[in-house]
Design goal:
The protein is of the alpha/beta class. The protein has a domain of 208 residues: Vaccinia Virus protein VP39 (Rossmann fold), CATH 3.40.50.150. It has ten helices and 16 strands. A hairpin with a 4-residue loop joins strand 10 and strand 11. It starts with 5 loop residues before the first strand and ends with a helix.
Length: 354
């Protein structure tokens, strides 16, 4: 690690084992069985997800990355100088590097991730690449974070970064609640740069979640292996198969683990019966239109600064800021009144291809 690097001790917001046990037991007790998607991301799951991001069928990662590359100067100019950058679900921080290379005077970077090994590995690489950057890593679940760690610098504002369409894993009401949580953490003059997947033909969507190499299947089934290892369940991985259909009515991919036969799974003294064809839902991935997501963000206390899309209209990136209220005015991320006014922002939403 470069001696000039300032790396704060890791803040730990990991859920305790009883909490994990309770969440899994609760999810499997429902008529429609579930396992929370956050449990997909142990060390092996995180590495498999990184592998998914490189697959030909999985367009979101490379498409969002290209949007950021193509528009990075404008994006970082609007984010402003001297901001504190907070990333939810930082993973390998690949896309974050675009921001760190172009933002002026970053006060500090706070990567937040549930995978400890992924977080350590990423932070170690970043300290070599950005030797004068203050890094304050946080390990844990998003909702468990009640405050951001203190840093040595004095940021002009806090801007959150939430890439990868991870917001699609939340049901719409939950998404509003989580975005409101981000708004609270970032403060009155804060902002949010967020990526989300656009609605499109299922002939593009379904292959992205049912890849020909079976990497997504291994990623999904790994959550059962984790439950066996950490909670003592007795899932037979060979008795489940991965399936991820697109629910057009609800506008979401639904990731399932389908039981291939009648069976009983144990969690300590609890028993969970499965019929053949019954499935566990492990993840939703909602798809949005730009106007639809802008309205969702508005309900959470954010207003639109600007949106960007790729030329094929597969993916969207929005820059949002805390909405002004009658009790005070949230400082704009940057004063761009000369070249980007409110009317243009409205046209940007209304003219978006959906």
């Amino acid at each position: 690690m470069n001696e000039a690097t300032v790396m704060r001790p890791m803040t730990d917001y990991r859920p305790a084992r009883p909490d994990i046990w309770a969440e899994v037991a609760f999810g499997l007790s429902h008529v429609q069985k579930t396992i929370p998607c956050k449990f997909l991301y142990d060390e092996r799951g995180s590495r498999l997800f990184n592998e998914i991001c490189e697959l030909d069928e999985y367009y979101p990662t490379r498409t969002e990355d290209q949007i950021l590359r193509d528009n990075i100067v404008e994006i970082t100019r609007m984010m402003g100088d001297g901001c504190r950058l907070v990333e939810f679900g930082s993973g390998s921080s690949v896309k974050t590097r675009h921001l760190l290379r172009h933002l002026s005077g970053v006060s500090s970077y706070i990567p937040i991730d549930i995978s400890r090994s992924q977080l350590f590995e990423s932070v170690a690489q970043l300290t070599d690449e950005f030797p004068y950057l203050e890094i304050c890593p946080v390990e844990g679940d998003y909702y468990g974070i009640s405050r951001l760690p203190d840093s040595g610098g004095k940021p002009r504002r806090t801007v959150a970064f939430f890439p990868g369409s991870t917001i699609g894993n939340f049901e719409p009401g939950e998404a509003v609640a989580f975005l409101s949580h981000i708004a609270s953490l970032c403060g009155d003059d804060g902002g949010l740069l967020i990526g989300f997947d656009l609605k499109k033909d299922k002939r593009i969507l379904e292959p992205a979640y049912n890849d020909s190499k079976g990497v997504t299947a291994r990623f999904n089934l790994n959550v059962l292996a984790r439950a066996n290892r950490e909670l003592g369940t007795d899932f037979n991985l060979e008795a489940f198969r991965h399936h991820a259909p697109y629910n057009e009515k609800l506008g979401r991919i639904e990731m399932h683990l389908v039981s291939t036969r009648r069976q009983i799974v144990h969690l300590d003294s609890l028993q969970f019966a499965f019929d053949k064809g019954e499935y566990i839902t492990t993840e939703y991935s909602y798809k949005y239109t730009v106007p639809g997501f802008t309205e969702l963000a508005l309900r959470a206390g954010f207003e639109l600064v600007k949106s960007w899309e790729d030329t094929n209209h597969l993916f969207g990136v929005l820059l949002l800021r805390r909405k002004r209220t009658e009790f005070g005015s949230a400082e704009p991320l940057m004063d761009l009144s000369d070249d980007f006014d409110i009317a243009e922002r409205c046209n940007d939403v209304e003219n978006a291809t959906v």
